[in-house]
Amino acid sequence: MNNVNPKSLIVIFGATGDLAKRKLFPSIYRLYQKGKLSEEFAVVGVARRPLSNDEFRRYVSQSVEDSTKQELSDPSFVSRFYYHSLDVTSAASYQELKTLLERLEETYRIPGNRIFYLAMAPEFFGTITSHLKSEGLTATNGWKRLVIEKPFGHDVKSAQQLNKEIRQSFSEKEIFRIDHYLGKEMVQNIEVIRFANAIFEPLWNNRFIANIQITSSETLGVEDRGRYYDHSGALRDMVQNHMLQMVALLAMEPPIKLTTDDIRNEKVKVLRALRPITHDEVDQYFVRGQYGRGFIRGQEVVGYREENSVDPQSNTETFVAGKLMIDNFRWAGVPFYIRTGKRMTEKSTKIVVQFKDVPMNLYYRTSEHVHPNLLVIHIQPDEGITLHLNAKKSGESMKTTPIKLDYCNNCIDGINTPEAYEKLLYDCMRGDATNFTHWDEVAASWSFVDPISEVWANTKAADFPNYEAGSMGPKKADELLQKDGFHWWPLNGTM
Ligand code: NAP
After folding, report:
1. Average pLDDT across the chain, whole number
2. What DSSP letter does each residue of 176-232 carry, written as one string?
3. For labeling, which of 193, 211, 296, 366 is most exposed (least CB within 10 Å)?
């Protein structure tokens, strides 16, 4: 691990797809520009449609230019891209791919280090990995790594089956399961904020924290992902992976060292300590929503059931709010509220840590109330932290006023935060699996989520659609916190 310019051959399955175009090629380009790739690297794109190397290189250039909004300054970058047309379901065509990989490894003096990046629908994962092994592509002199996209199964059973299939060809240490939230700068910053600041860690427990709120809201609807999304829904698409990963990072114990295994062990312990929700308790802890028509920034938009490739009677949730309890010494009694949805008021991912009130309000005669202290971690699009405190109101005798201490990570001139995919690809090349999800985390997350999705799949939501596009979700999501005497902190302006 940690060799600075890793020598590797990257094979991207699904190279003509949306993910490769929008995220992977631009990320490889940025790594190249920053000098993070050695001279010994090449990329092979794989998909069914017939393309020549030149056509593929033009396609890659275009994707980079679309992303950087600039003309590609160094055309030698794309000369390292090759294309191989192949139907991944046909074993026979893998032999030609093998020959191509061997030839490129010789040309670019790559010592047999191969990354197989599966940017394709998950139904192909098992087939591809089994063919990679049976046709000898995994038998290499260097290292081999498999990168797979979400979703990893649709419940614990299907995830176990998928894991069994890919483990026939790759060991757990060779599997890099992408959760792109783990590549985000401020998600990676959660650990540093917690473990490098003496003022937070002593307070980071049920004696001083009243609740923690995590919101990930989007203004977009399902766009052209209706076919996938209508079978997935917000619980599987966002909660099982991204939201629970953020909960784990916020709640874990300090790792013994910052090694991959030590951090993952602590995260897994949190996921295992989540209080299981039985079928009967789902309504008590979780709220589902589906957007109807409404307005986003003044523009009228259609309801979910009217979107392309969506069942007009769809029972799929586009919004989830939930209350999670972590039954361990540190967190007993502290609710973690999560909320995520499409077509909400604004695009924002934020974590709000609400501290408990001071034991006694000395200022109640002069001020309406003393505001609770909040630590807000802005994940996206803003990146930074805000600490909400109380101070004396200028001039007025002993009246309190809330003040904010702000740190904005992406406002500083010259800091251009690397894209999550750029960091994750680089980590994978260096063999650092810290910011990828281990199988134990995947299994524990599905085990938590499964009872909820079972209940929702088997009961029709009579009130769907139950929130207007452009709102912050259904009323019941607010009631979930009101029952405990809390409310969602607003995401805009005041935060
Ligand atoms: P996509 O746009 O539908 O692309 C699918 C790719 O697979 C295309 O390149 C297609 O090319 C290729 N393909 C399909 N069947 C094939 C076959 N039998 N043999 C060989 N190639 C085949 O999908 P995507 O949006 O890029 O998503 C890819 C994966 O990333 C999925 O697992 C998705 O859930 C995940 N993901 C995507 C995003 C995103 O922003 N797009 C975000 C997070 C996760 P041909 O038609 O030429 O064969």
Report:
1. 94
2. EE--GGGGSHHHHHHHHHHHS-TTTGGG-STTTEEEEEEEEE-S---TT-HHHHTTT
3. 366
